[in-house]
Backbone:
C-alpha cells in the first residue's frame, strides 16, 4: 500500500510540474527554408581549418545527429546525411534538415535536444575514410555541436596524421 501511495505522489508531482513549464518552440521552427520544400529547412555550416589541405578526392559526406541533452548514455540518432564535393577548405554548405527534426530522435528527448555533425571524407583518395592523410573534424579545437537556427555554424577540420 505504501508503494502505491509513493507512486501516486510521484506521478502527481510530475504532472503538476509539467503544467508549469513554459512552452518551448521546436528548435527546427527557427530555421528557414530556402529550397521551397515545406518538409525541410537548411542548416548552413562553414568548415575551416589551419592545415595545408591536400584534396585528391573531393567527395565527402556530412551527417547530422541528435540526442537528448539530459541523457548521458543515450545513443545519438542519425537525422540526415548528404554527400558533397569540395576541392578546397574553407567551404560552406547548406545541409537539408527535416522540419520535424526532434521527432526523429530515438529515444524521444524528455528535454532539449542537442545536435552535432560528423564528416566522412577519404580526401587522400586511398579508398578508406578516416585514415592517415584524410580530412576530419578537429575535435581538439571544438566538438562539432550545431544549433538549428539561422546562424552559420562553424566546424573546424584538420588532416589526420
Residues:
Amino acid at each position: 500500500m505504501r508503494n502505491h501511495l509513493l507512486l501516486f505522489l510521484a506521478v502527481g508531482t510530475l504532472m503538476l510540474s509539467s503544467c508549469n513549464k513554459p512552452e518551448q518552440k521546436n528548435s527546427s521552427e527557427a530555421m528557414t527554408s530556402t529550397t521551397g520544400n515545406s518538409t525541410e529547412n537548411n542548416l548552413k555550416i562553414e568548415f575551416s581549418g589551419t592545415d595545408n589541405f591536400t584534396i585528391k578526392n573531393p567527395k565527402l559526406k556530412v551527417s547530422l545527429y541528435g540526442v537528448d541533452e539530459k541523457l548521458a548514455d543515450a545513443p545519438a540518432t542519425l537525422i540526415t546525411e548528404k554527400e558533397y564535393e569540395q576541392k578546397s577548405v574553407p567551404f560552406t554548405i547548406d545541409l537539408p534538415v527535416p522540419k520535424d527534426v526532434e521527432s526523429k530522435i530515438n529515444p524521444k528527448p524528455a528535454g532539449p535536444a542537442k545536435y552535432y555533425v560528423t564528416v566522412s571524407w577519404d580526401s587522400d583518395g586511398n579508398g578508406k575514410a578516416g585514415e592517415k592523410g584524410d580530412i576530419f573534424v578537429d575535435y581538439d579545437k571544438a566538438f562539432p555541436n550545431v544549433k538549428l537556427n539561422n546562424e552559420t555554424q562553424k566546424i573546424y577540420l584538420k588532416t589526420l596524421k
User: Anything to note?
Assistant: The radius of gyration is 20 Å. Residues 2-19 form the longest helix (18 residues). Strands lie at 40-48, 59-68, 77-85, 91-98, 113-121, 135-137, 145-146, 153-159. The chain is about 10% helix and 35% strand.
